[in-house]
Design goal:
Blueprint lengths: L8 H20 L6 H13 L2 E2 L11 H13 L3 E6 L4 E6 L1 H21 L5 H20 L4
Antiparallel strand pairs: 1-3, 2-3
């Protein structure tokens, strides 16, 4: 399966993720956004709100960078912050302007995604996602005692 010139599986995963971030950032920079802005906006769209402390982007960004991404959406007037002191969580919600802007941003992301995955077939994509899902489930279920 591997030869002397191949890298480990993890290297390919990390390089793919970095390349995806660069690709999306380049496509979204035309409207002043990044992949992480999109992740925040999409989470709000899917759930009606996002919890800052639970955002997936926090796995990739430092707290300062995450705050800047959120603050930039607030400055645009697209997102408002609702502090939930009893839960010690910060909820993010769309403003009316954010709701109206979301479809335009989503269309740009969809177009970029189609271009990004152009070299692979739908079947290859589905096979890759299936394999990665099985690996994730296997490793998460493994008992390492």
């Amino acid at each position: 399966m591997a030869n002397e010139t191949s890298y480990g599986f993890g290297w390919y995963l990390k390089e793919t993720d970095l390349a995806m971030t660069r690709y999306m950032d380049q496509n979204l920079q035309k409207i002043g956004l990044t992949r992480f802005h999109w992740q925040i906006m999409n989470r709000i769209h899917l759930s009606g709100f996002a919890v800052k402390e639970k955002l997936y982007a926090r796995n990739y960004l430092g707290m300062e960078e995450l705050n800047e991404a959120i603050d930039s959406l607030v400055r645009r007037g697209w997102v408002r912050i609702v502090k939930q002191t009893e839960l010690d969580e910060t909820k993010l919600q769309f403003t009316e302007a954010g709701e109206k802007m979301f479809p335009e941003v989503a269309a740009k992301v969809k177009e970029a995604g189609e271009q990004m995955f152009a070299p692979i077939t739908k079947e290859e994509y589905e096979t890759t996602v299936n394999i990665l899902s099985r690996l994730i489930n296997h490793m998460n279920a493994k008992d390492f005692e």
